[in-house]
Amino acid sequence: MLRILYSLLLGAFVVFSSGCASTGGETIEIDMRHVAGRQHMPDELSDMLRDLGYDWVPIPDPDSRLAVKTVQQDGEYRMRFEQSAGGQVRIDVRIRQKDGFTHLHFYDPANQALSASSMALLRELQQRVALEFGAANVSY
Predict the structure, then answer these.
(1) Which end of the chain is less packed: N or C, by CB atoms within 10 Å?
(2) 56 has which bridge partners?
(3) CATH of the domain at 105
């Protein structure tokens, strides 16, 4: 009986975990510890992504429940951007406040896998991030 209960709990966990999995896509990481001339990272990313054709998407602030550009939660800044022309892809941003370590999660909200055109946008983003922050500070 106990074995069946453990099996059911494990099965429920697996089903729940797969339902909460990310939407596919790719992640770009930026290690800001060695970047010279470092500024306020949310502003730097906003400017860079705007230049690449992305607009910020309001996200709900867990405290005020208002839609805001940047949420500060759990020692991180969180932001979201969407491609201006058609909204084909999104970028979820997490920036650790203490050292600026940044994750850019690039994905297509409508599909699990990236299309050929989304991959071209990803390559463009990767090149720009490497140019802005130095290739040695960026990983994919």
Answers:
(1) N
(2) 81
(3) 3.30.160.110
String of DSSP letters for 16-70: HHHHTS--S-EEEEE-GGG-TT---HHHHHHHHHHHTTEEE--EE-TTT--EES-
Q: Are strands 102-107 and 90-96 parallel, antiparallel or unpaired?
A: antiparallel
Q: Count how many residues are written for the chain.
A: 140
Could you give the CA distance from residue 103 to residue 11 in angstroms, rounded to a whole number? 31
pTM exceeds 0.90 for this model: no
Nearest Cα residue to 114 out of 89, 91, 139: 89
The pLDDT, as a whole number, for residue 39 is 83
Tens of pLDDT along 84-124? Answer: 887 789 999 999 999 999 999 999 999 999 999 999 999 99
Instruction: Give the residue numbers spanning the domain of 91.
Output: 22-139
